[in-house]
Amino acid sequence: MVVDGEKMEKHWCRLEREGNIGIDFIINPYLYKEIADFLCENPESKIVDFGAGTNMLAIQFMYGNSPDIPALESIKNIAQARKNIDSFIGLEGSEQLVAKAREQLGELGHPGNIDIRHFEVRHGRRKPFGDSSIALAISRNFVMHLEKSDLEYHVSEISRILKSDGKSIIAFLNPSYEQKKHLDLSPHNKPLQTNEKYSFVHGSHGEHGVFAHYWKDIDTYEKIFDKHLKIINRVECFPITDRFREKYHRYYQKDLPMALVYVLAKRQGPNHESLLPPGRQSARYIAGDTVMR
Ligand SMILES: C[S@@+](CC[C@H](N)C(=O)[O-])C[C@H]1O[C@@H](n2cnc3c(N)ncnc32)[C@H](O)[C@@H]1O
After folding, report:
1. Fewest CB atoms within 10 A around its CB: which of 113, 114, 233, 280?
2. What is the CATH number of the domain that holds 49?
3. pLDDT number for residue 274
4. Which residues form the Methyltransferase type domain (predicted)?
5. 1 band by pLDDT with thresholds 50, 70 and 90
6. Which pairing describes strands 162-173 and 134-140: parallel, antiparallel, or unpaired?
7. Atom 4 (ligand 1): residue with closest C-alpha?
């Protein structure tokens, strides 16, 4: 069963309400650090978040309190980062989630610098921003939902809308983690192939919902990133605490980070040299400080 549409909204809202260990304790600590580091160097940044859900990332990043938000605890420059945000705009494909996000913004008194708009990312659908107008284009757990040609167009559009010194920071589930989870769940499952639509189960067996993903191997992601942008860092996300080791053993597999955060920069010209070493299939060893545990 592959769940899109209405059920997706219900599941996602429930996951947000109940907390999400994978996001709170594994992805955000790394993702928020990269976002904060970028912002500290870039005053008056316009940020866009694709597949923003209910805009929780923007709300937490701009207004969340540590220690309620574990990811913020280690981010010492958060106050400076927040000062440098001009606007934080979420684009989201589900009208119901946009409505929910608006409700939440209402509860916060409609802050002037956060917004959410309905926009579905699809091949050929131009993003509603001018060329070179955005400082930072981000997404969290979004690109797994895109079919390969939609992803390719999405990344090419990010390159178009980014300012010359702009960056894109993309956090997503490690395809190898997705693959292993898929195979572990059932001995009858065949290995996923690139662009195959499948049901990704949230939780151990779908107790938090079943979402439609298009599985893509890491080479596919990196080739698309590298074609339109410059890969400058890749961070592997492991839990920041041992607290969940027993209950959520799957997050603690050695050499199998649950998620990856890519930091991508706008290319300065058509012939700009790639940072992917020739013949290397993965960018994982590019930067000495890439792997954080
Ligand atoms: C797993 S949720 C992540 C939500 C949010 N990024 C977060 O981390 O809180 C994926 C989101 O992507 C949205 N989405 C999926 N396909 C989309 C598309 N083609 N265009 C825009 N949004 C899409 C879904 O509606 C959902 O809100």
Report:
1. 280
2. 3.40.50.150
3. 52
4. 82-170
5. very low
6. parallel
7. 53
